[in-house]
Amino acid sequence: MDYIAELKDKGAAAKLAARKLSVASADIKDKALAAMADALENFRTDILAANSIDIENGKTKGLSKALIDRLLLNDSRINAMAEGLRQIAALPDPIGEGLGTKRRPNGLEISKVRVPLGVIGIIYEARPNVTVDAVGLCLKSGNAVLLRGGSEAINSNLAIINVITRAAYSAGVADGAIQFIETTDRQAVNAMLKLNEYLDVIIPRGGAGLIKTVVDNSSVPVIETGIGVCHTFVDESADLTMAQAIAYNAKVSRPGVCNAMETLLVHKAVADQFLPGMLKQYHEAGVELRGCPLTVLQHQGVKHATDEDWATEYHDLILAVKVVSDLDEALNHIAKYGTRHSEAIVTKNYDNARRFQQEVDAAAVYVNASTRFTDGFEFGFGAEIGISTQKIHARGPMGLTELTSVKYIISGDGHIRS
Amino acid sequence: MDYIAELKDKGAAAKLAARKLSVASADIKDKALAAMADALENFRTDILAANSIDIENGKTKGLSKALIDRLLLNDSRINAMAEGLRQIAALPDPIGEGLGTKRRPNGLEISKVRVPLGVIGIIYEARPNVTVDAVGLCLKSGNAVLLRGGSEAINSNLAIINVITRAAYSAGVADGAIQFIETTDRQAVNAMLKLNEYLDVIIPRGGAGLIKTVVDNSSVPVIETGIGVCHTFVDESADLTMAQAIAYNAKVSRPGVCNAMETLLVHKAVADQFLPGMLKQYHEAGVELRGCPLTVLQHQGVKHATDEDWATEYHDLILAVKVVSDLDEALNHIAKYGTRHSEAIVTKNYDNARRFQQEVDAAAVYVNASTRFTDGFEFGFGAEIGISTQKIHARGPMGLTELTSVKYIISGDGHIRS
C-alpha cells in the first residue's frame, strides 16, 4: 500500500473509532489498559525478539551507543511499560467532567463539559516505550491515535502495537482506535502533517529538528513540546550553598532531558565568591564550560561562549556561564535566549523573587528550586505526554487533562433568538 | 519600507511591549480602554473622513452593496465601537487569576496562574469595527496585537489606529503594544504567517478562503474560527410547532452569520406532517430550497441538492433539506458534513436528546433551541473575538479568558531533584 493510501485509510478508521471512544465508559478504558499491560508482559518474548532485530540493524547502520540504548528493550523496560499503563488506568477519567453550568436570563441552560480532542497524531523518534505511553494516555483520555515512530524502532513498534491493540479491542475499545503508520518513508511524515480531515492535533516528541519540521510544515494544529534552553540565575542575595546545590542538580543530574539547565547566570556582586567553587564542582563532574568574557578571564578551563551557545540546548554535559550586572540583565537574557520552558532564580530578596516570577515568560518559573522538577510526575499529574513550550492550549507538563477539549451543551424549551 | 522589514519591526516592537503589558494592572488597562472610547467619539470627524475615501474607492472598484455596507462607518457605528470598548473595560481582568496551588509531598509549592498569550496576530477582512474590537479584547487580556486588515478599509483602519493608539499610550499602555500593518500587499499575509519569532498565535476573522489560507500556511499556531455548516434535526417526537419556530429562526433571523442553519434534517415519520408548512414559511421568507430526492419529489419549488450543497456554508437565504430515516442517519450526516460549530435537535425523547448531546462533535450542541445562540454575548462572556471551530485551546465563543495562557510558578527552599 502506498503511504498516502495508508495514511488516509488509517486516519479515516481512527476518526470513525474516535466517535465511539469519545463516549466509552471509564470502566472499559481502564479494563483495556489493564489488559494491554498484561499482554505486554505475556508476549514479552515476541517483543524482545522484534527488538533484537532493530538492535542488530542499528548496530549495522552504526547508530551511536546512546541511540542503541534508547532503542533497547529488556525485561525491566517491558515491566516499566506495563506498570506505566496500570498507573494510567488508576488515574481519574478526565472525560465528562462538568466545567460549570449557567442559566441565562432567558432560561437557556449552558453547560461546559470536558470531551476528548478526537484523533491525536503523535510523531516520535527512537524510544519504543513512547508507543506504549502515547497509546495509554490517548486511550484513557478518550482519543483515537495515529502514531508515526522512528524507522530504527519499526520492528519493536510493530510487535508492541500488535500486542496492545489486540488486548485493547478484546477489552471493548472501538476497533480502529489505535493506528500505527507502517511505512518508514520519510514522506509519510509530510503527508501526515496535512491530514486535517482526520487529525485534530499533532504532538511531536523528539529533538529540535523533528519539532521544527512539524511546526514549519503542519497545517494540522500542533502542540510544540520539549525544547528547553533553561537558565538558573544566582542573585546577589542568594544563599550560595543553596545556589550551588541547585545549579549542580539542574545541570548534572540528567543533562540529556529538556528541563536541564543550559546557561548559568550569576550576579556580578557574588561572582567572585560563587564561581570558583561552583566551576570546580562542574569540572569534577566532567562538565565542559563556555563563558562570557569575564568568566573566561577569571577562570581557567573555560572556553569562549559564542552567541550560538546562549541559544543552544546542549542535551549534554556542557554549560554556558554568564556574569550579569543585575536582575534586569538576567531577565533580558532569558527573554532573548530562553525557550519558555523552565527558568529559576536563587535569591533571598522578596522583590526580586516576585519580579522574576511575574516577568519571566516560561511554562515553569522557579524560586529556590531546580528546573529539573518540570515533569508530569513531579507536578502530580501522574503521567505526561510531553512538556508544552507554546502558549496555546496547554503549557508545561501535559497530563490527561491537556489531552482534552470542551464542548457546550445547551438545553432549551423552544428558545429562539430575537 | 518593504513589508518584510515592516513586519519584523512591528513584530519586535509588539513583543517588547508584551513583556510590559503582561504585568500591567487592570486599572491602567481599563483607563486606556475608556480613553480609547472617548477618543473615537472625539475624533469621529477624522475617522468618517477617512472612511469616506474607502467608500469612494470601493464604489470605483465596483465592490458589492453588501461589502460597501460592511465597510461603511457612521455616527451610530462609531458610538457602537466606543460602547464596545466601555463594555470590555467593565469586564473582570482575566490576568493573574489563580487556577489552583498544590503543595507536593516534598514541600514544593506549585501554583498555576493565568497570563496573557503574548502577541496575538489578527488577520481580518472588510469591517473596520473589527480593528477596535480586536484591540480592545487583546489589550484587556494583557496581549500586544499585530493587526492586518482588509485593503478596502485601509484608510478607515489607519485613522482608527491613529486615534486609539495615541489614547492608549497616553493612558499608560506600553508603547508599541498596538501594531497595524500598513502595507496592503497580499504577500504581507504570507510573511505574517511565518512570524514565529514574534507571534504567539494568529486568529483569522473572515470568510472560508481567508481561513483556509491561514490554516494551510501558518507556522504560527492558529485558532480557526467561524465556518459554520450548522444543522437542525427535527426528531420523530418533536413538538412540530416548536420545531418550526426554531428551524425558521435558525435560518432566517440572520442568514449571513456563522451560527445560522444551513441544513435542515427531518425524521421521515414526521416529514409529511412537518415539511409542507415549514417549506411554505421558508418560501414566503424568500428562502431558496435544495432538497434530497424525497423532498424534491414531494414538494414544489425545491431544487436537487448536490453533495456540495450538504457541505456548503451558504451565508445566505438558501437552505438544504434532507429527510432521514432515524437519529443515526442524522448523526452520521452531521459527522460527515458538519463543521463542528453548532448543531441542534428538536425532540421530546430523553434518550435521543442525550445521545445527540453526547455523540455530536461540535462546539455547541443544542436541544430544543436555535443554533443562533452561539455567540459571546448570548453565552454571557460579554464580548468575543470569534467562534473557535477547532478542538485545541478554545472551542466555541472566545471571550477574554480564551485570549490567555497559563504558567506555573514554583516556590522552593533549595529543592533539588533526586
Automatic annotation (TrEMBL), chains A, B:
KW NADP (keyword) present: yes
Xref: Pfam families: Aldedh
Segments forming domain Aldehyde dehydrogenase: 12-284
Major enzyme class: oxidoreductase
Substrates-to-products reaction catalysed: L-glutamate 5-semialdehyde + phosphate + NADP(+) = L-glutamyl 5-phosphate + NADPH + H(+)
GO molecular function, a single term: glutamate-5-semialdehyde dehydrogenase activity
Pathway: Amino-acid biosynthesis; L-proline biosynthesis; L-glutamate 5-semialdehyde from L-glutamate: step 2/2
SUPFAM superfamilies: ALDH-like (SSF53720)
Coiled-coil stretches: none
Name listed for the protein in its UniProt record: glutamate-5-semialdehyde dehydrogenase
Annotated organism of origin: bioreactor metagenome
Gene: proA_2
